[in-house]
Write a structure and sequence with these properties.
The complex is a heterotrimer of chains A (222), B (545) and C (352).
Chain A: E1 4-6, E2 15-16, H1 22-57, H2 59-66, H3 71-96, H4 100-130, H5 150-185, H6 195-221
Antiparallel strand pairs in A: 1-2
Chain B: E1 2-3, H1 19-23, H2 28-56, H3 67-103, H4 111-130, H5 151-154, H6 159-186, H7 199-231, H8 244-278, H9 285-299, H10 314-342, H11 351-374, H12 376-382, H13 386-416, E2 418-419, H14 422-448, H15 463-493, E3 495-496
Antiparallel strand pairs in B: 2-3
Chain C: H1 12-45, H2 61-90, E1 97-104, E2 107-111, E3 117-119, E4 121-125, E5 129-136, E6 141-145, E7 150-154, E8 160-165, E9 170-176, E10 189-194, H3 196-203, H4 253-263, E11 293-295, E12 301-303, H5 306-314, H6 338-350
Parallel strand pairs in C: 1-5, 4-10
Antiparallel strand pairs in C: 1-2, 2-3, 5-8, 6-7, 6-9, 9-10, 11-12
Helix pairs in contact in C: 1-2, 4-6
Chain lengths: 222, 545, 352
Amino acid sequence: MSQTVVSTDPGVRHHAHHFDSAEHEFDSAKQGMWLFLVTEVLMIGAIFVAFMTFRGLYLEDFQAAHKLLSVPLGATNTVILITSSVTMVLGVTSAQRKQKGLTVLMLFLTFLLACGFLIVKYIEYTGKFHHGIMPAGLYTGVNEFAASSDAFKLFFSFYFVMTGIHAAHVVIGMGLILWIMRRAARGEFTGGYYTPVELVGFYWHFVDLVWIFLFPMLYLIG
Amino acid sequence: MTTHASPAGTNYLNWEKGIWSWMKTLDHKRIGLMYLASVLFFFFVGGMFAMIIRWEHLSGGPTVINQATYNQMFTYHGVIMVFLVVIPAIPAALGNFILPMMLGAKDVAFPRLNLFSYYLYVAGAIFASSSLFGWFGNPPADTGWTFYTPYSIRTSPTVILVLTGAFIAGFSSILTGLNFIVTIHKLRAPGLTWGKLPLFLWALYATSVVQVLATPVLAITLLLLILEKVIKIGIFDAALGGDPVLFQHFFWFYSHPAVYIMALPAFGIISEMIPVFTRKPIFGYKAIAYSSFGIALIAFLVWGHHMFVSGQSEFANFTFSLLTMLVAVPTGVKVFSWVGTMYKGSISYEAPMLYVFGFLELFMIGGLTGVFLGTLAIDVHLTQTYFVVAHFHYVMVGSTLMALIGGMHFWFPKMFGKLYNERAAAVGFWMVLAGFNLTFFPQFILGSQGMPRRYWSYLPEFTFLNQVSSWGSFLLGLGFLWIAIYLAYALLKGERASDNPWGSLGLEWQTSTPPPLENFATTPTVKEWSYDYRPGTPLPGSKTA
Amino acid sequence: MNPGYLPIAASDLATRWDWLYDFLIGLSIFFTILVLGAMIWFAIAYRRRPGLRTKYITDHHGLELLWTAIPTVLLLGIFVWGYAIYSEMATAPANAIEIRVVAQQWKWNFQYEDGKIISDKFYAPMNQPVKMIMTSQDVLHAFSVPNFRIKSDIVPGMYTTVWFEAKVPGRHQVYCTAYCGANHSLMLADAYVLTDQQWADFKRGKEIGPLPDAHAPLASNRSNSGEANSGLSDPPAVDRDEVSFDQAAPVSLVAQGKQLVEAKACASCHAEDAKADNSQLSGPSFVGLYGSKISLDDGTTAVIDDNYLRESIENPAAKIRKGFRAGQMPPYQGQVSESDLSALIAYIRSLK
């Protein structure tokens, strides 16, 4: 167990022994989280580059393929996620203000909105599969869903991979939200210590931000 | 404020005992040792595959294994050595142990994350090595550690286990790098300015930046390859309209910086050891520190030099070759500075210093042959031959391994409070140096003559040099075995070491040996440069306690 | 001259390559002796002994500048030299004889313009440029002929090329150097470089038996500043189109291509001769098409080469020429084999 420095001053929270103060620890934690998000940017950046490369080579095919995506459903998900970022922020500020009930409520709303996102995703994916719209090697769409070329099908490979990895990150985020909900309900967060809520907040905003790039890229411009 | 501390008079090894205390430890020193043990274990496993390969190469036709098995052997040799040994070795093992101590800190910024990183490494290792037994009746992977498509898409699905293992181990690397960056930023002792930061830390810092920025690209590449095999996404598969060369771009975008993850920490260790054993300040401290970042930056711009004959454009080849030439400059600066440090020094030949000499010989050859390969026309003939195999073994083994073993000897007393036997160490060193050169130098000639790599069988004209190489490798293997033996003996029965047997000015040596749990009794304030070996600086005292 | 550590230099380019290589070796030996020599000297001269005092030196800006600047200049010079030779390697002469290569696990197929296909060996004339246009049926392969110092990956779905002009007759070893599975190391081939007489025989359909290994040329290539002195007279310039083969030989690539174009009714959209009325046709004319530089509908330009034609047959929408519409031509991906593609390209190219 990490050794903690126990404070006799009731307003100051304890912190791990290798830090000088709680603030020192909080700053370090935030820096660590930012660095983690940088690594996520690189992972996503790489697949964006692949997408843009293929799009540059096969523009007409990609534009034709993207018409099969549902802009209304994508836009709905965008609104859901942006709203969930708002509830997340409210959750962070209320944790900071030691408002236990409000924190749990806001986090729960964020969780619900995330569920909504996944439900819409489920509807989209099953709809696609029903019409045989799958990753390239499994594509079986016919008639109005027929692929006009290999590149047409590759668009859907990118679609499923990118939105799929994003959805996986949403699920992970939901797990993290449940975790801090539980800790919030136990009164663990105060003005002097709300690090986990802040860091999960960063993560959640990031997941939202990625969607805000994905949506126009896949659904709007194709 | 009161601090919970380990009982007075104990050290990090004995204040808490039992396997469970190790498995749940948050102490960076114990975590470093667990990494060290695991890395050395996998080094021997990977080495075994190498021995089988060299045994097979005693003759041009079939010797002991068939071609299918041979292809698996070089695959696992590469995967294990790259992902489970050379990349983690110095940062995770020695870095974890030494970095906080050199900073005057009690631990890394995120100790729990550190332990988690270790378990990620273990999980990755289990996935990758369990695949040796096949998967649902499918044979082990045979794609080479580079997993080029379309072959990797078509071949046995067992490679998915290897890809998963490498993916997980990659996160161990990323999180370690992240941890080190925040530690260096936030946990420096009072008085330790950037201008006084030891070069091992500059090296680890540059390495950590590379780990954090490059490894995620590997992660997505491996993931995409898994998805290729499982749901046929087709991005890298020509048969589905995808581009196999794009896979190579993705793969090398990580794997080139990866070789600097291997090399930079090694450079840092060399920079630490030379001043101690020459009793002189390191020559060109600023140049060495900045060159680490210069190398880290250019490292991201040269990946295409692995692809000169891949069919990429002439313009790409022009650019990558030019940039590759540039990376040699900061590297050369380091080598010249290290040798320059020896001028007018007072040199002793303990094992760490022997490994410095060995490092310099091997790295010179490895680095210079890198210039050959970076030269466009020259690379066309030499690429995909044994010349490349020789080059990368000279730099990877020559730098990383020499520095690792040298560093292990250097910090052995600090870690365990015991001394190893210098004469035994010298024997081990010369066996390894001779064995290594005998194994790999002939391979430059073989490649130059045209012998391709990843070849199970070879033409009769290549026989003699292959046999020299194989016998050299047996000597090399024996050398490593010998090192393991006398170090194990020292661990159990070595003489008790004094607190600072080398008379080093480094901060990690200013505390007791082995160190207490919290490293320092009180947080030190750094006043001097740790390379301040003036003519009057006392020579090392007695090595034994 | 074959200095042991290299195979013979069987072309002028190989000889020039060897000069650069030997220069690099010399330079490496020089720097190794310099640096390791200094290291060994210091190790001995400054070994620790009683009374030896060290000197406190932390840097020397002049020296550091020197050992930064000199390597930089040297490396840039090496880069330029290497790029110059590479540039030649990358551009085949326009009059090169073409041999189309299809690599597969684990076999080589070499196809000549007359349609003849030979497996695992090919024949090329001496003293004439020969260009290999290569693709793969399955996974990555690579074509390597050490004697000519040439090498290129062979990638499924696209064409890559190498070229050489051999000065030494006989058998030259060909390797596959890109790992391609189980029998990668058994995927060898022979390049038979023929004298004028042998080449004439080959064109007449005569079987040329196995040849002895190529050995050092009759006179040293290097002593004549790179000019080969093989003792044979200069061959007449070869007009590729005049190369004619035995009547009983297989159908030429051009003829095969013409048959395919008829079978697939390409003429319904593409003119095959200059007299056709282009205004009625929805696709660009084939006449004079090959080698031309065109504008694409996205504003960029492209040169119509083998890779362009291949891509446009398989996936026309990829690079639509300005002034033409996407969606008119169906993609032929999966409906044309490698050999069909070679034939179609050869035919289109022949329409001047």
